[in-house]
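Hi support team,

I submitted a single chain yesterday and got back a structure, but I'm not sure I'm reading the token output correctly. Could someone confirm the output below corresponds to the sequence I sent? I've pasted both exactly as they appear in my results page.

Thanks,
R.
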Amino acid sequence: MRGTNFSQDAGLAAVKAFRGTVTSNETWRAVEGLLPPGGRLRLKPLEHKAAGASFVEFARAALEGDVAAGKMGALSVALLESDAVLRALSEPSLSSLEEAAALARAAVRLDERIDARLLTSLTAASVDWPRDVPMARAGRALEMIDLISDCRRLVMPLIKFTKIPDPKIRSKAVKLIARASQNGGWVESVLSDPDPRVRSNLIEGLVRQMGRGAEQLLRRAARDAHHRVSTTSLLALAQFGDEPAREELQKLAADPREMHRRAAEWALGKLAEAAAPSYKSPAIEAAANESAKSNPLD
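Hi R., thanks for writing in. Yes, this is the structure output for that exact sequence:
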């Protein structure tokens, strides 16, 4: 275990040392440094086939070629089974978000379990979760999961990410869990999370996953004391055609509390965008302009 951790630390140090001035050869060195010995042995011969391309460029071309061919070839097998692609997807210093997204979309076409493997590559190797996992890697991994996965197999590993102190990472994990989970008991525990971002993202994810099946939860969350949570819930109910929720948003648009008022105006503007052109109430019409300015729930 110590040898593996040393190799990963050395790889991360190498990445940071040349961040911003990465050459093609150095990306290969960096990925090799993140792999256990067996993975490095499988990856080493592939660099000679890269013709000067960076690791991410080469891996994407190889995977997309096999996607087009309809089957996995030797290059894709080596890249995926060595875990080199997993490491590249979760290490933000090796590629831009767009480059990583393209690689992830190609990888999932060849390995439908790449989402679970990506999370496991972080959680299973951890000795002291989450303190020994760089937050940048955890955040990038969740971004990739968000792009490629329905999260049905990921509820348990994602729960580990809800224990991370970083509120953005924790709320992203909750949103992904809500996409897959209808475990009401667990949902109840998350709704008591002290971070309103987590509660709001859970609601958004549940609405996407459950549709009108989330109405009971939305009605409870609409009474949340935080404007982000209550407005998210009222907006979802209004989008389902709930007139009392729409009326409550109109009342909040005149609330003396600035954040509640701005949030309600934003929500009414979102409703105005989808409203029938034949009629828009004055409050909704006026709020349409407000929604184009900024999202006060961010």
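A quick pointer for reading it: Residues 1-22 have pLDDT under 50 and may be disordered. Let us know if anything else looks off.

Best,
Support desk
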